[in-house]
Design goal:
The protein is of the alpha+beta class. It has two domains: 214 residues, Alpha-Beta Complex (set domain protein methyltransferase, domain 1), CATH 3.90.1410.10; 184 residues, set domain protein methyltransferase, domain 2, CATH 3.90.1420. The protein is built from 18 helices and 14 strands. The chain has a four-stranded antiparallel beta sheet with strand order 1-4-11-10, with helices on one face. A hairpin with an 8-residue loop joins β10 and β11. α3 packs across α8, α11 packs antiparallel against α12 and α16 runs antiparallel to α17. One of its GO terms (molecular function) is protein-lysine N-methyltransferase activity.
C-alpha cells in the first residue's frame, strides 16, 4: 500500500474512472499522451474553437480542505475534528489516507499521477546542503541564502511532518503505522505542491484544490487554455473548467500556465525547469536572508556599514519596511535582467522600467536597513514607495558586496552538491539544483554588471529623494 503513484497511466482506465466521477473529458482531446520531454500530456484530436471546454472537474470530485464527503473518504471525519489551520497539510494527509486504503475510490487517479522522486524534502539524507556556513575571503556566507534554500524553507517540511505524525498517531485506523511513512508523506507533499490550484478571488476558500483531469495539462509560459469557475448555484454545481483561450489546431498540445514563479520554485514544487522558465526567473531576497546577510556584515565588521546595527533592530526594521510596502511578506524580488545588457543611456532607461524599479528598491532597502537610527526614523515617517535613495559610492559598494556574498553562497551550495548528491537516485535532483544555481549565478552577474553600468550615470539628489 502507498506505492500507487504512476503505476497505471492508461488513458482508458482514467477515462472510465473520470466518467464515474462526473469529470468531463472532451471527446476530441487525448489525455495522458506520452511526450518526448514532458512526460505525459494532453493533445487535441481535432481542431477546437476558442471557448471550448477541454476538461472540467466538479467540486465534489476535487480534493480540498473544504469537501465534506465522509462516506467517500472516511479520514475526512478525523480531519474535521482536528480543524487544521494548514490547508496544504490537510490535503497531504487526505492523500496519504487514500494511498494506503486498498478500497479507496481515488486510486485510479492516484495511479495516473506521476511518481515524483526528485524532491528535496529528506533533510537527513541531504546533510548541510541547504544550511552550511563558510567564511570566505570576502566574508561569511551561508548556503541558506540561495534561491533553492529560500523556497525549500517556505515548504516547512520538518514542521509539517511533525504535525502529520501527531495526527497519524491519534488516528492509526486511517494512517496505519508502517504504511503512512515519511517517504509517502514526501510523495504526497510533492503531489500537492505540483498539482494544486488556488482560487485567490474567494477569501477563506483559496485552496489548495486538487482537480483530477484538469491537473493533467503541462506548463507553458504561452498557455492556450485558461481556468474558469462555472456554476455554483443551487441548480448548477460548481465546476472547475479549462477553456480554450484561442482556436486550437489538430494534434496541438494543450498547455496551462503554472505562473511566473521563478526557477527555484519550479524545481522545488514541480521538479522540472524549462528554458522559458529560466528566461522569466527572479532573484529573491527573503526577509530572513536580508536579516542574516546584514547580521553577517555586522559580525564581519564591514567598513561598508556606517552604523553597527543590532539583531533586534534589524528585525524591527524589516517589519516596518513591510508595513511601508518596501518589502513583501516573501521579501524582495528583482526580475532577471536582459542578456546582454542594453548599452547607452542610464540604467533606468536601458532596462525595462519594472526591473529598474525593482533594482532601485534593492538599493532603498539596503540603505534603510543599514543607516543610523536618527536617519531611519526621519525617513520612515516622510517617504513612500516612490522614494529613491541617492546611490552614493558607499551604498553602491554595499549592494555589490551583498551580491558578491550571494554568489559565494551559490558556489558553496554547488560544491556541497558534488559531495552529497553522489547516488544514482540523486541524479534528477542534482540536475535540478545545478540548473537553478546556474540561473541564479547568471542573474547575479547581470545585476552586478547593471549596477556598475548604472553607477556611471549619476542621478540628481533632488530627483532621487523626491517623494
Amino acid at each position: 500500500m502507498g506505492d500507487c503513484f504512476g503505476t497505471d497511466q492508461s488513458s482508458q482506465a482514467f477515462a472510465i474512472w473520470a466518467k464515474k466521477r462526473d469529470i468531463f473529458l472532451h471527446p476530441d482531446v487525448a489525455f495522458l499522451v506520452p511526450t518526448k520531454t514532458m512526460g505525459l500530456g494532453v493533445f487535441t484530436r481535432k481542431p477546437l474553437p476558442e471557448g471550448t471546454v477541454v476538461v472540467s472537474c466538479p467540486f465534489k470530485s476535487s480534493i480540498s480542505p473544504y469537501g465534506d464527503f465522509p462516506l467517500d473518504s472516511p479520514c475526512i471525519s478525523a480531519l474535521a475534528k482536528l480543524r487544521l489551520k494548514d490547508n496544504v497539510l490537510h490535503v497531504v494527509l487526505r492523500l496519504m489516507a487514500e494511498a494506503v486504503r486498498p478500497s479507496s475510490p481515488w486510486l485510479p487517479w492516484l495511479r495516473a499521477c506521476p511518481h515524483m522522486p526528485d524532491h528535496f524534502f529528506n533533510g537527513s539524507a541531504l546533510g548541510n546542503l541547504f544550511d552550511a556556513r563558510e567564511v570566505t575571503p570576502i566574508g561569511s556566507v551561508s548556503a541558506s541564502w540561495t534561491e533553492l534554500s529560500q523556497h525549500l524553507r517556505d515548504v516547512e517540511v520538518k514542521r509539517r511532518w511533525e504535525e502529520a505524525q501527531e495526527v497519524m498517531q491519534r488516528y492509526p485506523e486511517h494512517w496505519p503505522q508502517g504504511h503512512a511513512t515519511f517517504a509517502l508523506f514526501c510523495e504526497c507533499l510533492a503531489l500537492v505542491l505540483s498539482r494544486n490550484f488556488h482560487r485567490e478571488e474567494v477569501h477563506g476558500r483559496e485552496g489548495p484544490y486538487l482537480l483530477p483531469g484538469v491537473d493533467l495539462t503541462n506548463h507553458s509560459c504561452t498557455a492556450n487554455v485558461r481556468m474558469e469557475l462555472r456554476g455554483g448555484g443551487r441548480k448548477n454545481p460548481t465546476n472547475f473548467c479549462l477553456i480554450a483561450s484561442r482556436a486550437l489546431r489538430q494534434r496541438e498540445q494543450i498547455f496551462c500556465s503554472y505562473g511566473k514563479i521563478g526557477v527555484a520554485r519550479f524545481a522545488i514544487e514541480f521538479q522540472f525547469v524549462t528554458e522559458d522558465v529560466v528566461k522569466e526567473d527572479t532573484l529573491r531576497f527573503s526577509t530572513d536572508v536580508i536579516t542574516d546577510m546584514i547580521e553577517c556584515l555586522v559580525k564581519d565588521a564591514s567598513d561598508l556599514l556606517p552604523y553597527k546595527i543590532s539583531s533586534d533592530t534589524i528585525r524591527a526594521r524589516i517589519e516596518r519596511l513591510q508595513r511601508l510596502g518596501f518589502l513583501f511578506d516573501e521579501g524582495l524580488f528583482v526580475s532577471r535582467l536582459p542578456s546582454p545588457l542594453p548599452s547607452g543611456g542610464s540604467g533606468g532607461d536601458a532596462v525595462p522600467s519594472v526591473v529598474a524599479k525593482e533594482v532601485q528598491m534593492l538599493f532603498n532597502v539596503m540603505y534603510l536597513m543599514t543607516t543610523n537610527p536618527e536617519e531611519f526614523e526621519h525617513l520612515i515617517h516622510t517617504i513612500n514607495r516612490d522614494w529613491r535613495v541617492e546611490r552614493t559610492g558607499r551604498l553602491v559598494k554595499l549592494v555589490e558586496k551583498v551580491l558578491m556574498l550571494r554568489v559565494e553562497a551559490a558556489r558553496l551550495q554547488q560544491s556541497l552538491a558534488e559531495q552529497i548528491l553522489t547516488k544514482a537516485e540523486d541524479a534528477g535532483r542534482k540536475k535540478l539544483l545545478q540548473v537553478t544555481l546556474n540561473s541564479e549565478l547568471e542573474m547575479l552577474q547581470l545585476l552586478q554588471e547593471h549596477i556598475v553600468q548604472d553607477a556611471s550615470v549619476p542621478f540628481s539628489r533632488g530627483e532621487l529623494n523626491h517623494v
